[in-house]
């Protein structure tokens, strides 16, 4: 449904909505600001709850690319038992600060580590490595820091995710871009690194953007969707999408997600 407003109030202008979306802080993975303005269906497997169950059975845990630490914090609060050791990594400085503030009270260290660098831990240091929406899984490093019998449990962004929105701004994308993050390719890469894939499930999920402010905030927050996005650079596309939402209702896109579980033999 289109955004609901009091009929006695003036409609919010394109400029007002864009200015609001451009002003909201983007650090962390808290998406509560979007409530009432954008929606996304959630995968059926319930990643954070499933992660909590696995935390309860682990002794040494690494959360790779933790963002603002929100998912790890949620899962730890619901784990039947706290792992004796839990560490997180994050590469973006604003998120490092946010995750540290959130997780330090739980006794969890957040290590600043660029996403493409080797993980700064010893071989076989962890029996569980988790990650939600890593930019890209560093399979040889994941395999290296896992103990024999250890598990990698993650939710990945899949191929062509939210490409209805991406292609509105960038135009049609080539097959090699649309096909990136394919689950079968990630399975092959994980197996090449010496891991056994024991579960791999994929889903395509409906998203709705109810106003252009939500689109602006989303593209500022999920920076790899439209690299280098700024309001000034993409104002014509933003105006066109604003008018489309006004005329037709929410802009519909689809995210893709896959659940990945692998073990080190």
Measured between the Cα atoms of the first and last residue, the distance is 50 Å
The number of helices is 10
Largest sheet, spatial ordering of strands: 1-7-8-6-5-2-3-4
Contiguous low-pLDDT stretches (5 residues minimum) are: 1-9
CATH domain class:
Alpha Beta
| Percent range of helical residues | 25-40%
Total number of beta strands: 8
Secondary structure class reads alpha/beta
Topology-level CATH name: Rossmann fold
Please give the radius of gyration in angstroms.
Answer: 20 Å
Task: Quote the beta fraction.
Answer: 15-25%
Q: Would you mind describing this structure in some detail?
A:
By secondary structure, this protein is α/β, with parallel strands linked by helices. Helices cover 35% and strands 24% of the residues. It has ten helices and eight strands. The chain has helices spanning 14-23, 47-55, 70-78, 93-103, 139-145, 163-170, 175-178, 183-192, 212-221, 235-248, and strands at residues 38-40, 60-63, 85-90, 109-112, 126-132, 146-157, 196-209, 251-263. Helix 1 (14-23) runs parallel beside helix 9 (212-221) and helix 2 (47-55) crosses helix 3 (70-78). The model is unreliable at 1-9 (pLDDT under 50).
